[in-house]
Amino acid sequence: MANKEMYTLGSQSSVIRELFSYGQEQAAKVGKENVFDFSIGNPTVPAPACIRESIAEIMATRESAAIHGYTAASGDTAVRQGLAQYMNDTYDAHVKADNFYMTCGAAASLTITLKAIVEAPEDEVLVIAPFFPEYTVFIENAGAHAVILPPDTEHFQISLENLEKAITPHTRAIIVNSPNNPAGTVYSADTYTKMADILTKKSAEIGHAIYLISDEPYREIIYDGLPILYVPKFYANTIVCYSYSKSLSLPGERIGYILVPDSVSDKDVYPAVCGAGRAMGFVCAPHLFQDVVLKCLGQTSDMNIYDENRKLLYNGLEEMGYDCVYPQGAFYLFVKSPEPDANAFSEKAKALNLLIVPADSFGCPGYVRISYCVEADMIKRSFPAFKKLIEQYT
Amino acid sequence: MANKEMYTLGSQSSVIRELFSYGQEQAAKVGKENVFDFSIGNPTVPAPACIRESIAEIMATRESAAIHGYTAASGDTAVRQGLAQYMNDTYDAHVKADNFYMTCGAAASLTITLKAIVEAPEDEVLVIAPFFPEYTVFIENAGAHAVILPPDTEHFQISLENLEKAITPHTRAIIVNSPNNPAGTVYSADTYTKMADILTKKSAEIGHAIYLISDEPYREIIYDGLPILYVPKFYANTIVCYSYSKSLSLPGERIGYILVPDSVSDKDVYPAVCGAGRAMGFVCAPHLFQDVVLKCLGQTSDMNIYDENRKLLYNGLEEMGYDCVYPQGAFYLFVKSPEPDANAFSEKAKALNLLIVPADSFGCPGYVRISYCVEADMIKRSFPAFKKLIEQYT
């Protein structure tokens, strides 16, 4: 007398959450300083000062109903206007308030977008391995099938050949995530250009638009001076899903947005986004934090801390002989398992109190994800254990 | 290339929202003081002082990650423990932290609960007219059919005879909303006892549990010293959906919970709730406001203001000759239209700048809903218009 699929989803814990829980238990036994938890992507860099300041200012200067009342379902108009202005100034985006729908974070941005565009049970949504495991859950919730493109383990860009082959008359959308969780890679302008050519050609062939869903929670976490690309410039039928969880270190506050630019060919998409939000019970995005992100537009947490962690970890592990994917964005290091079974490797790491996530559930067996949104000191202290681990393979 | 049902849901504005928008336009033309907007249920009484104090205290004493980081998907453990303690102290509820799943408000509580318990496309969920119009949207989103019980326009309690007749082998749940939006009625212990008898008998007959979904956003907005009833005491298979939107005047912050007590016979329901939240992309309820409601347990906005509005409006309209349902809870006055077509009546009211909602979309034609979560002064100033309106029928 409960829905079996929902029961299964709710009772199975993810590998990440299991490792995280194990880490907390283990810390109680052997001491927090002896457990090296690289399992979870919970930002450790504090939110920028403007978050505290904005909350204080709003609380001090506005009346209760203006702070905590309902906003329009799509979000407060002033917030969406400010956001449009910011996107125009920063990316020359040519958007306006009515292109934005404020959401309760990245997951909501995706579930709402998918529900808005999926029409029939045979619809397919492409995801590119390695990918955030919840993608397949969200695609199934929208009533479509997830089709997984195998990883390009040479460059961790998009295998355009595989992409072209994977498109069928049922293809409705592709989810692209750059900077990428878990691989830390960033897609280049060249990749987007070529991908857009394929999507345009294939849309014409199959007789309907293929949407590019650009999932960008790590947009501003990008290194080596790489440019942030505005994806709708490369491909008109792009829907942008954004969240402030990572850029402003606010993951628990659930605040983000969906951007449906005017370049999207079907004018029904934006109203369908509104309808999907309504159907799933997202009345409006949390009001106080809508106003807070408006006041903090363009700001981010201190990205230098992640950059320093990145260099420390990448250089340290490379020196020991690990085969790492060079991270250009996000806060994950993707490492090839020295044995084919990444689960076995992760277990050996666990025995040394090193908690790293096998990437099988990310669609990329044989790799592990090491999250470096941690204290730099923990990275340094973990090196002897990483050294012991690799020595088991030499 | 957008989902047609979602497009329809997103592009059709509700009667309430349309009236509300009309009111704002009209106010710009004839002056805010000449428009009497009784259309919307947006709390006007300020949040209690503890909300501002709790936010200030949390911001001043905790680190960023402890304020804004992810909580467990089901909600922070300390919050759920505090909530369990409060429910045990107040209602002798015998619940614990793990019976609670924190949500983004009442709508999310309902969509998640429905998705957790609906199994097959032929499943039916009963709603009792008059009812909050989004119920049917949420039931359809879960993949079930809404079966509407006609209103008992004599007492606006539950017609038990109709309830018994409406139950079929496909009945999965009934949604009960007391204090009621839009009728302002409160179900008595006697009503719950008799309803429980029917549900127990019918569950046995059809061979599976019928869940009672108790939607309680107005729980504490109750008048004349009527007791607040803890519904699972009357019927074991009760799932409670709650929101702090109305009791703490926080509708924009999206914070509430689902309570699945141990008396619910199927132990898969709680994990299914967790799975349904996950599938729809509710990662966790907004963190700061989880902690804020913990600090404000047992507090409410000033309910006396609503009570005074209630008396003022009820007595005023009764005196003029309106036929009103006596309101025992919530902040709505339900009034019989003096002509059979409540839409025509509402249009005549609109011509006098009186904005009142015809109840057709609430499943109760021939009635209007007058929301009195407004300034008392506006109620007083509206009386000449209400008088002119009724005079058109005498």
TrEMBL record, chains A, B:
<dbReference type="InterPro" id="IPR004838">
    <property type="entry name" value="NHTrfase_class1_PyrdxlP-BS"/>
</dbReference>
<dbReference type="InterPro" id="IPR004839">
    <property type="entry name" value="Aminotransferase_I/II_large"/>
</dbReference>
<dbReference type="GO" id="GO:0008483">
    <property type="term" value="F:transaminase activity"/>
</dbReference>
<keyword id="KW-0808">Transferase</keyword>
<keyword id="KW-0032">Aminotransferase</keyword>
<comment type="similarity">
    <text>Belongs to the class-I pyridoxal-phosphate-dependent aminotransferase family.</text>
</comment>
<feature type="domain" description="Aminotransferase class I/classII large">
    <location>
        <begin position="34"/>
        <end position="380"/>
    </location>
</feature>
<protein>
    <recommendedName>
        <fullName>Aminotransferase</fullName>
        <ecNumber>2.6.1.-</ecNumber>
    </recommendedName>
</protein>
<dbReference type="InterPro" id="IPR015422">
    <property type="entry name" value="PyrdxlP-dep_Trfase_small"/>
</dbReference>
<dbReference type="InterPro" id="IPR015421">
    <property type="entry name" value="PyrdxlP-dep_Trfase_major"/>
</dbReference>
<dbReference type="InterPro" id="IPR015424">
    <property type="entry name" value="PyrdxlP-dep_Trfase"/>
</dbReference>
<dbReference type="Pfam" id="PF00155">
    <property type="entry name" value="Aminotran_1_2"/>
</dbReference>
